Amino acid sequence: MTEVALREVSKRFGSRAGAVQALDPVDLTVLEGEVVAIVGPSGCGKTTLLRAVAGLTPPTTGRVRLGGRDLWDGGRPDPGALEQLALVFQETNLLPWLSVLDNVALPLKLRGVRRQERRRVAAELCERTGIDGFARHRPRELSIGMRQRVALARALVESPGLLLLDEPFASLDAITRDAMNLELQRVLAESRCTCLLVTHSIAEAVFLADRVVSFSGRPGRVVRETVVPFERPREMVLQHTAEFQHLVQELRATLAEA
Questions:
Q1: N or C: which terminus of the chain carries fewer CB neighbours within 10 A?
Q2: How many other C-beta atoms are found inside a 10 Å radius of the C-beta of residue 50?
Q3: Residues 139 and 220 in one domain
Q4: Which residues contact 203 (CB under 8 A, 6 or more apart)?
Q5: What ranges make up the beta strands (E) of 218-258?
Q6: Is 99 found in the same domain as 78?
Q7: pLDDT tens per residue, range 162-207
Q8: Contact 167, 200 (CB under 8 A)
């Protein structure tokens, strides 16, 4: 498990007239094993922040620390810090010419793990994420929901301390999205990794997270941190309770006023 610490992290795109301030300085800590969701209006800098934590976009100011180790050295990420994390986007970015099993095993192949071993580990992840029956299939033969399971399995194959999720289920229908939320909750409980999730769905954030961080409109800044009081494991029936709906409405009102 990996703790995430952001201190005065801001991001500005461009340096002349017309430059865009995407993020005001943000302070945020995600504890080891915690699931934290970030919600906010479109264009508020949620994904920009996630990309700074993922080593994809250097912050203009501030520090990002993963497991007590500085991620950024100037404009370059520390490879050692990057080894602690995995990232899942809305687009699965699976390689169409590889089987499901080989897509899941790809990170291990890039690390030089022997074929027999990486396939054994990948097969275990396929079983854990419910795609073991599709190991020989190509991505084009799978539904969108199944492809997201493959992407999740691939992210977990190296047992990351930190899992970053950027709207991973946004393109799914409501029923499939509910199923994937249950699956993700189960996988996170088993893997015990730290998780930082960006989502536009307040209900999804409340269902999955231990804490929800609400962002203002651009430039994004933290306007509220909300502890989610519901015990785990959580079932979908929770979303129909008055307590759950009340918390969702509170967060929606917060975003409307931000």
A1: N
A2: 21
A3: no
A4: 239, 244, 248
A5: 222-227
A6: no
A7: 999 999 888 888 888 898 899 889 888 888 899 999 999 999 999 9
A8: yes
DSSP code at position 91:
S
Q: Distance between CA atoms of 100 and 134, rounded to whole angstroms?
A: 7
- Distances, alpha carbon 200 to alpha carbons 14, 58, 75, 76, 168, in Å: 26, 23, 29, 29, 11
Tokens encoding 185? 């909750």
Q: What is the pTM of this model?
A: 0.92
Q: 105 and 224 share a domain? A: no
**Domain identity same for 143 and 21:** no
Residues 135 and 140: their CA atoms lie apart, in Å, by 13
Q: For the chain, how are helix, strand and coil distributed in percent, rounded to 5?
A: 40, 25, 35
Structural domain total, the chain: 2
The single-letter DSSP state of residue 175 is H
